[in-house]
Amino acid sequence: MSPTALPQCVISPDEYALTEAGERMRPMQIPEDIFEEFIRIAEPNTQQNLETCGVLCGKVVPGQETLVVTTLIIPKQKATSDTCTTENEEELVVTQMQLELLTLGWIHTHPSQTCFMSSLDLHTHFSYQQFMPEAIAIVCSPKYDPRYGVFRLTDPSGMDVIKSCKQEAAFHPHDGSDIIYTNADPDGHVVKARYSFEIIDLRNA
Prior knowledge:
This protein starts with 16 loop residues before the first strand and ends with a strand. It is α/β, with parallel strands linked by helices and 205 residues long.
């Protein structure tokens, strides 16, 4: 595999966003068609009331602190109506290394639920955002409006709550006094733009 090409960046070099603590975050450009395209890919699973998940990959724009999603990778996976677990993660890592791609977040469907971050989603996303503060979680809800949302854990509050949570059950409540997650788009660090992106479906490999 050849390294993935970087599309044109529409974000200015001096643009940035802030966390709840006032820390700078790099802006992230994502393709505006990725939501409906992923919903289309997930349709066979959605019809069976099964979740589908994927990994958002991309690069840093040379010369500026901007992240660009260039590639959607669909790993091998096992799913239920409200869970999705990746399998053969070594294959995913090798693919990213060959294409020189960073992990910028993840995307998954709620086949029969509305668009929100469940407690399991929050714990899953914590590991992404701990590794990269700008990492995003996209939730697609094909049967409801809105059909998608782009989220991140608040920092502070959300990151601290999930880090200290000792609940063992997959689905459980968290303290309602804290805002645990927030929209990354609009009015966040995510900017949508029209450009082509690559889709790699490892389920067929």
